[in-house]
Amino acid sequence: MKPPVFEYHAPTHIDEVLELVAQHGDEAKPLAGGQSLVPAMNFRLARPSVLIDLNGIDGLGAIALEGDELRIGAMTRQRAVERSDLVGEVTPLLSETLPFVAHPQIRNRGTVGGSLAHADPAAELPAVALALGARFFVRSQRGTRVVEADAFFDGLFSTAMEDDELLENVAFPVLADGQVTAFSEISRRHGDYALVGVAVSLSVDSSGCCERARIGLLSVGDGPVLAVRAAEVLAGEVPSDELIRSAAARAGHDDIDPPGDIHASVDYRRHLTEVLVRRTLAAAFARASNGGSA
Question: Are both 98 and 164 inside the same structural domain?
Fold first, then answer.
């Protein structure tokens, strides 16, 4: 199938982009890597009357360390982030997760900002952004504002961005002392959308006690889900098999209201969530006991 007729713009400066999105509102769609938008247009699931190509805009594809944050421009290719030594050193959860995203050919074109702004509930990067507590810098002609990850995703393929706003870059906190992370997912084949995925970030003190936990889940709701109740089980506790099982049970039964579809029933997704949270927490705590190494 082919998309409906649309008006195409290829601006060369971000101010031109902001003018276009302010003018056309929800009739316009920014084109980043196109790995989700173009197929949706071909199947006529998306029907923008205006397409704004961001690929000619300089300055949106940088990876830079700024203080205790790693800034990643919205147009940075996923493959570039995956292969970055800097990313692997300061935000290893991104490096660990990105090989699970589709296939290399997709990651060569797909962008970090495109995936996050698309807010697919089955996508890995939104769950990672939740687990890490990322900050989103969104820009319009009215200025720039910062949206915390907890408030950025607000529904199925929906974010807190207004129609005239553009995601400019995302700030991921640098791995702190005592912090460990881990990721896992289950899919029928590598590269398929995951049936369930889990991203974990733990802060562990010198005695092994879990001071703070953030657990991001994917494919279990209308968007990425932060497993708040599971994290509460871990806070202030020394890890044990019983504690991890208890937290995983809370995640699978109290934190999610998963959909059922042809790929997995509701009960099966709850079961997978519990199993994966247990495995991922165990892996993260093992890294903490090994000084942060896998």
Answer: yes
Domain harbouring 120, CATH code = 3.30.465.10
CA atoms of 118 and 37, how far apart (whole Å): 9
Strand blocks (E) in the chain: 7-9, 28-31, 50-53, 63-66, 69-73, 135-140, 143-148, 153-155, 158-159, 166-173, 179-186, 196-204, 210-218, 225-226
For residue 253, the number of C-alpha atoms closer than 13 Å in the C-beta half-sphere is: 6
Q: Could you tell me where the beta strands, DSSP code E, fall in 81-142?
A: 135-140
Cβ(63)–Cβ(72) under 8 Å?
A: yes
Tell me, yes or no, if the pTM score tops 0.90. yes
| Same domain assignment for residues 161 and 232 | no
Beta strands 63-66 and 69-73, pairing class: antiparallel
251 and 163 inside one domain? no
What is the spatial distance between Cα 208 and Cα 292, in angstroms, rounded to a whole number? 12
Answer whether residue 189 is part of any domain: yes
How far apart are the C-alpha atoms of 63 and 20, rounded to whole Å?
A: 26
Residue 101 inside a domain? The answer is yes
CATH number reported for the structural domain that contains residue 219 in this entry: 3.30.390.50
Residues 192 and 159 in one domain: no
Q: Per residue of the chain (294 residues), what is the pLDDT tens digit? A: 789 999 999 999 999 999 999 999 999 999 999 999 999 999 999 999 999 999 999 999 999 999 999 999 999 999 999 999 999 999 999 999 999 999 999 999 999 999 999 999 999 999 999 999 999 999 999 999 999 999 999 999 999 999 999 999 999 999 999 999 999 999 999 999 999 999 999 999 999 999 999 999 999 999 999 999 999 999 999 999 999 999 999 999 999 999 999 999 999 999 999 999 999 999 999 999 988 766
